Fold this sequence. Notes:
The chain has a single domain (3-144), classed as Sufe protein. Chain: A (Alpha-Beta Complex). The chain contains four helices and three strands; from the N terminus they run H-E-E-E-H-H-H. It has helices at residues 3-16, 64-77, 82-95, 126-144; strands spanning 29-35, 40-49, 52-61. A hairpin with a 4-residue loop joins strand 1 (29-35) and strand 2. Helix 1 packs across helix 2, helix 2 crosses helix 4 (126-144) and helix 3 packs antiparallel against helix 4. It is globular and about 40 Å long.
Amino acid sequence: MSLEELYREVILDHYRNPRNRAPVPNPDAKAEGVNPLCGDEVTVELSFDDGRVGAVAVRGQGCSISQSSGSMMSEAIKGRTLAEVRDLIARFKALMDIEGSLELDPDRPGAVLGDLEALQGVKRYPVRIKCAALPWTTLEQALDS
Length: 145
């Protein structure tokens, strides 16, 4: 199996079996995002426990890219501090070549993006980058609210 096929399988798995969809009761942060170009919708809810993401919910509807990106994101941020989440957002944007570039230091904590690396193939289709980024921009809005 090629790396591209493996990445496709990871994306489809997260789309077919999305993680962390159950609503977060009394969330500490919440935001809703919409991509008007294609109609993708995402809601992100977070609760914090001792300065870390204790619970996260990512729900919505849309294409496989936006929904799988949200599922992967929800798994990646669970248990992380606010600073680590913001660092992960910056790393994801760098992976997708959004808003400039960030030097990815492999020795830095959280440097490995895991399943999120499956989304790097989306860069070949610039219109789809917004689909992959929607959950992340919605997460940023939730953190800033």
